[in-house]
Amino acid sequence: MLTSSWSRFLLCYLSLILYFSASVNGLIETRTIDDALGDSADPNAKPIYLPKGQWTPRPGNCVGCNINPKNPELAFKGTWHDTTHFATDDHNSTVQFSFTGIALSVFCILPPKTAVAVTNYNLTFLLDGQPVGTPFVRATNDLTNDYQYNVSVLSLDNLVNTQHTFVMQMASQVNDSVTLFDYASYIHNDQGIISETKKNSHLGAILGGVLGSVAFLLGATLLVLFARRRRHEVRTMQRAEADPFEYALRIDPIPLHRQDMPTPSSTSGGYGTSILDTEKGPPPAYSLTQ
Ligand SMILES: *[C@@H]1O[C@H](CO)[C@@H](O)[C@H](O)[C@H]1NC(C)=O
User: Fold this and answer.
1) Are strands 103-110 and 177-189 parallel, antiparallel or unpaired?
2) What is the residue-wise DSSP string for 202-258?
3) Alpha helices in the chain (DSSP H)
4) Exposure on the CB side of residue 64, measured as CA atoms within 13 A
């Protein structure tokens, strides 16, 4: 009985600790944003391609496309989006998506230098409206004779843990360029995310932390008290089994004395009558003993 009570308490306590440490450990994960399928954590969050109609989802039929990767299965999830941006265009060509994370990488497919098409790359990047990273520029001569898959065009880390808006753009008014966007990956850390209303989230985090700790301590204290009470009950029971007579005396010793022994005020013959006694009137038991 004694050991089972304690082991139950320990089990509760250990599972609480495991629960907290597990939720701490499971917080950092790498997520992907596929060009077609979108965010691995939220399929509704898909990249936006502008201008509309200027990007082609691949593979599949593409009239007039001269950049056709021979091994589409080497693309992430087998898909990519491509477009050609011309220096004379009056718009930028962009891929845009949002993510909540602390690091970001973007991957493209590069054409071979032999392709009969615009083959050079000229990408610049914006994070939350600010230029970020090193522009990815590849002249045709920098390319190889084969398609190159899974090429990192940008890698950012040490980002503020908040929701970011990312834009990859072709904006050159000097050179034509091409892009075959395959996917992005980012590191999501569930802990310490700073929401857009930063003050509120800080307050929320502090309040959450304090309330969480208080709840945890309260729970642990209740468990300890419960375990002690159980232990006391168990000991009393064990004593009762060992010595039934002593147990009977111990059950409720106070009423036993009150009934058998007169109290000092009843034997002191009047002068001890207190205000309390007169207010309440003498208890019935007294008249029996006098
Ligand atoms: C693509 O590149 C990333 C980063 O270099 C790497 O982690 C990943 O395994 C690569 N994927 C394939 C299919 O090669």
Assistant:
1) antiparallel
2) HHHHHHHHHHHHHHHHHHHHHHHHHHHHHHHHHHHHHHHHH-HHHHHHHHSHHHHHH
3) 2-25, 198-242, 244-251, 253-260, 264-267, 275-280, 284-289
4) 6
Neighbouring residues of 7: CB distance < 8 A, sequence distance ≥ 6: none
Global pTM reads 0.62
**Would you state the pLDDT for residue 174?**
87
Closest-CA residue, ligand 1 atom 3, reads 150
Per-residue pLDDT tens over the stretch 186-234: 999 998 899 865 545 566 666 767 777 777 788 788 888 878 887 877 7
**What's the maximum distance between 2 C-alpha atoms anywhere in the chain?**
124
Q: 152 C-alpha vs ligand 1 centroid, how far in Å?
A: 9
Q: Which residues line ligand 1 (CB under 6 A)?
A: 150, 152
Distance 107 CA to ligand 1 centre (A): 9
- List the beta bridge partners of residue 151: 108
- The Cα 37–Cα 51 span in angstroms is 19
